[in-house]
Write a structure and sequence with these properties.
125 residues, 0% helix
């Protein structure tokens, strides 16, 4: 059983940057595809970005593709989300998730087997 923990959230001004980190507090996800989701107040959880287990392929929703970068360091058992030019619309709880297996199974929540508890990102105007 893999347990994931997010960190790095906080309050930032519009236009600022944050780095979110996801680590496995139990087990390892170095062989798993990983992703970031977010849930804004009053909204359903949405996919943000994913990275395959090797770190060779990445996927983004259009609204963040020019501003966010997902990366990983399997030597540190960690996945990161670099968030730049943040907007108030980015305000949400950000969740790290992982898929068991090495074939990417897409952006749907149901395809992810392991989840962290989330970290709050608040972007002020």
């Amino acid at each position: 059983q893999v347990q994931l923990v997010e960190s790095g959230g906080g309050l930032v001004q519009a236009g600022g940057s944050l780095r979110l980190s996801c680590t496995a507090s139990r087990g390892s996800f170095v062989n798993y595809n990983a992703a970031w989701f977010r849930q804004a107040p009053g909204e359903k959880r949405e996919f943000v970005a994913a990275i395959n287990w090797e770190g060779l392929r990445t996927y983004y929703i259009d609204s963040v593709q020019d501003r966010f970068i997902i990366d990983r360091d399997n030597g540190e058992n960690a996945v990161y989300l670099y968030m730049r030019r943040l907007k108030p619309a980015d305000t949400a709880v950000y969740y790290c998730a992982a898929q068991s297996g090495q074939v990417y199974r897409g952006p749907l929540e149901k395809e992810y087997d392991y989840w962290g508890q989330g970290t709050q990102v608040t972007v002020s105007s």
